[in-house]
Write a structure and sequence with these properties.
Blueprint (H helix, E strand, L loop, with lengths): L9 E3 L8 H12 L3 E3 L5 H5 L27 H7 L3 H4 L5 H18 L6 H13 L7 H8 L3 H13 L3 E4 L15 E4 L2 H7 L10 H21 L6 E5 L5 E6 L4 E5 L11 H9 L4 E6 L5 E3 L2 E5 H9 L5
Parallel strand pairs: 1-2, 7-8, 8-10
Antiparallel strand pairs: 3-4, 5-6, 6-7, 9-10
Helix pairs in contact: 3-9, 5-9, 6-9, 7-8
Length: 318
């Protein structure tokens, strides 16, 4: 019998490309007690071919791009401009690498899995989805822009989620005093991908584009934190029919967070959180900004972005 060192782990990358290997993995787990780490960019193909998904013997874990806590000399502005995919964050100008990543990997990965018949319309959809990044999804409008049906657009978004290219943030709908919007928001998995698709570069504080990228990056960090620490509280956003909005709601209104790229938060920036407070007075209310110092404004914590990130990964926010 072949001996096996139980302190070692077998790692198989891109497991979705050879689904038949999972039967062998299953046998080795059961009969040899061998431990595996199985990596892949999509479970969609595995599910589609009906392969062995190791039910009860495998724990799914999401691996995200870099997070701020993993970088000792973390630079917020580099992260917002380059994104946090390691090869992109670490270079001065990531445009060529982003071009290769999106042009070769993202689009060809979709094509290789044979999940899209009208590839040209899907490529157009990737660009339109970037324009909708961080916004409420209107399938009909996007369908008109892409020249396909709303049903096809829903399937395209489903493909992005199942291939881990993007995710949806649901709406928080427990409000009592104000009617809440129920539409989901969409985010690409990394802000650098959005920047490239929208031809955004050299983003500077004070611009609208920087504000959008700042919010995306912060949501990206919160999503990763909740996943890595296996927090059971879900992330949602809140928007009312009359326009009040809060970017991130944690759990059943335990924490409400607004992301503002302003260098000095003012009273006008607190309107959404103050409206939310009327329904949920016990919620912890936070504005994350580019302010220099932490302070309290209208009963709301104003926390500088870098300090917020440290608090988040130290477990002091959620």
């Amino acid at each position: 019998m072949i001996s096996y060192d139980e302190t070692k782990i077998v790692i198989i990358d891109e497991i979705q490309k050879i689904p038949s290997l999972l039967d062998e993995v299953h046998w080795l787990i059961v009969n040899r007690g061998i431990r595996f780490i199985l990596c892949g960019s999509s479970a969609r193909k595995l599910k589609r071919v009906g392969t062995n998904l190791l039910g009860g013997r495998a724990l799914p874990v999401m691996l995200f791009p870099f997070v701020s806590a993993e970088i000792s000399d973390f630079n917020l502005f580099r992260a917002i401009n380059n994104g946090m995919i390691p090869r992109h964050y670490m270079v001065q100008n990531p445009q060529k690498r982003l071009e290769a990543y999106i042009g070769v990997y993202l689009k060809e990965e979709i094509q290789d899995e044979a999940v899209v018949r009208q590839l040209s319309s899907f490529n157009r959809f990737l660009d339109v989805a970037a324009q909708c990044d961080g916004e409420m999804i209107n399938y009909t409008n996007i369908a008109q822009d892409c020249g396909v049906s709303a049903t096809t657009i829903k399937e395209y978004f489903n493909i992005l989620e199942q291939t881990l290219i993007g995710y949806m943030i649901p709406a928080f709908t427990l409000s009592k005093k104000r009617r809440a919007i129920t539409t989901k928001k969409f985010y690409y998995f990394d802000v650098g991908v959005v920047n490239y698709l929208l031809n955004r570069s050299n983003l500077q504080p004070g611009s609208i584009d920087f504000g959008h990228a700042f919010e995306h990056f912060m949501i990206q960090e919160v999503v990763a934190y909740l996943s890595y620490y296996e927090k059971r509280e879900k992330l949602s956003y809140w928007r009312t029919a009359n326009g009040y909005e809060v970017d991130a709601i944690i759990g059943d209104a335990r924490v409400a967070i607004e992301f503002k790229s302003s260098e000095e938060v003012q009273s006008k920036h607190t309107k959404g959180l103050k409206a939310f407070e009327e329904d949920f007075p016990d919620a912890r209310k936070i504005i994350v900004s580019l302010d220099c110092n932490k302070r309290i404004l209208n009963g709301i914590e104003v926390i500088p972005a870098l300090e917020f990130l440290q608090m988040l990964w130290n477990g002091d926010i959620i």
